[in-house]
Amino acid sequence: MAETISTFNCSADSKNTAYYAIDTHDSIEAKITGAHSVHRSKSWQNPDLRRQFFSSLLLALEHHKAALKTIYCSESSLSEARFEREFHRMLQQIILYSNEGWLWSKHRESVNLPDRFLEKHWIPIGPVVVFGASNFPLAYGTLGGDTVGALAAGCPVVVKGHSLHAGTSNFLAEITAEVLATHRLPSGVFSHVLDKGYEAGQRILLDERIKAGAFTGSISGGMSLFKFAQNRKNPIPFFAEMGSLNPVIVLRNSNSGVENWKNLANAVTEDAGQFCTKPGLILVPIERLEEIKFKLREELERNPSYPMLHPDIYNKYEAKLKEIDPIIPILRYTNHTPWNGDRAIASCTLQDFIDSPILHEEVFGPFTCLIGYSNLEEIERLYCCIGGQLTTTFIGIHPEKERIWSIAQEHSGRLVVNGVPTGVEVNRNMHHGGPFPSSTDVRYTSVGEASILRFLRPITVQFSSTDL
Ligand code: NAP
Question: Could you tell me which residues are beta bridge partners of residue 308?
Fold first, then answer.
């Protein structure tokens, strides 16, 4: 009998009843072979065909929306309103990336030299393995930005479905398979693998027919897979978007009012703070520490608490708070609901923060750390401990004139002025990534049209003038 996995509903505090078969050695082999033969045959390299497929996929997703919502909510404990936002974003990504893929397939850069003609164009990198995130089952999941970006670039994709939302992942895979079949496209264009542990994902990544990998999740998971990709006989690019503390720096010249603290507190607590851009670190002028702490605490206390995605994530969050608390005391607001993440805040001096490595890592949940600074130069030392970040946010006037601006720029993928880092717009001008450890390749974004460049490679064709 096939081995199976099941999922958990934190809102209902119960196991979901459906079971999903995990892949065998043979089925994984067949899926990699399928992806490889699609790439070899170039059957997925027709941009018009891809656009037709994506149009049908959009309709199919709309058609299955209600059923998808039921599974999504029961597996992630995220709300129906959040489903709507994520569903819309998943469709938006399909539309934008599909167009972008079409544009790149036509894009040529050429030059006529006295004795030769050079033409550069962009081709699909080859079969891609995608490891989706737990916290965005749609937007960063099985049919999320990485998968759709790779497909739009003309690459076949093998998705390692996230075990915490195996049902959502499986359902999206079934919908995609159905649309491929309707268009008489080979099933190897998109395949989906479920596993009980890490073996299947590692095996796919190590297969020499796979030419790139994309990942969203923890630093430990991302780095482990990155090393696999680098240590292959034929190393391949592995684009991992990992953890980030997303510092928020309140400048001395800021005259921020209640609205700012409200927005900041919401960014910490919404959906139990399970966002890669959650502000995990708030730096304030030391003389305003008590005032701002008071205001933030008020807002945190007022905000609702939310269930976490899964007991494992809840347990990791609890363990992290227990590790931090003896070093820097934590104030917690609980509503005594099983699996809800307690809203939590700690405060300390910059030196205490620097001396406590446990605080230098992302705490995935509704926790933030408030730090009083004496002068902005001190913050440079902080970046030396935390390294690269997805975002840095400034609250205040003309931050670009401060030296800290260039330090933050050196360490961040996105700078936010007088806003919050959460809410990553899917847009051509978005950069979602950053210096290590926030991602493994600082040059590329995992959100926005430019994200598909991860899955294309340039090639130059050179003719001698006599051949023309
Ligand atoms: P994760 O544990 O890193 O897992 C992401 C995906 O990679 C899953 O499919 C997982 O497999 C797989 N995986 C992880 N480590 C692996 C390894 N060593 N070898 C092969 N495959 C591996 O991330 P998560 O489950 O989404 O959340 C766990 C933690 O990640 C959170 O507590 C948080 O700290 C962090 N996180 C960060 C972000 C972000 O955007 N920065 C987003 C989500 C989570 P399984 O399905 O078998 O687990």
Answer: none
